[in-house]
Amino acid sequence: MTKLRLGVNIDHVATVRNARGGTLPDPVRAAKLAQEAGADGITAHLREDRRHIGDGDIEALMSELTVPLNFEMAATDEMQRIALRHSPHAVCLVPERREERTTEGGLEVARDENRLAHFIAPLAEAGCRVSIFIAADRPQIEAAARIGASVVELHTGAYCDAHAEGRFDERDAELARIGDMAVYAHELGLEVHAGHGLTYETVPDIAAMPQMRELNIGHFLIGEAIFRGLQPAIAEMRRVMDEARGRDTVSPAP
Prior knowledge:
Layout: E1 5-9, H1 11-20, H2 27-37, E2 41-45, H3 55-64, E3 69-73, H4 77-86, E4 90-93, H5 113-125, E5 129-134, H6 138-147, E6 151-155, H7 157-164, H8 168-187, E7 191-195, H9 203-207, E8 212-217, H10 219-228, H11 230-245
Helix pairs in contact: 2-3, 2-11, 4-5, 5-6, 7-8, 10-11
């Protein structure tokens, strides 16, 4: 089975830095450590309110990384200009609301197809791989394909929340839905990624899906780094993913 890529999201290193002000901890240093620990790429979300990653972080990441940068952004004119200025390896369009603590749910593509198709066209022309962060939902996947996205990143938050809260029937249903929609997106010619809320416990069944090509994981790894260090935390996630990738079938944990 094709190796599954791990993208490490460093947003919450910047969250800790910004809580006190100043320059530490440095998210760029975290990105470099992630590279050394086996990350295949770095994800950073430049929000409109700049609550964690800042413009200077993007500048530094673009100049210092040796692995691809996945630039998460809202579909706004300002973010489009920034992305076109930097031309990162990938841009991932995500929903964004100022009152949310983190990205909640997927982008509504089906109701905004025309605008989003025109929005992503110059990004694709600039050589960026365009990804859309969406719910594992057939109409959203079909809309993403129609507007010319090359990648869909399926939202795994509901699956992870159900697991954490012991709602195992709901967890298993969410897992089955993600698996079915990964197959469908792949059939439509889209590259399939996933992310949001994944942990050592929840990642194996997602990683084992043969259509998956990349998982983007951040908050859990930054939190786990407090206890075991950033590089060991990432190395363990890499190990768990690789082990799961060798499985022949997807079966939820008891």
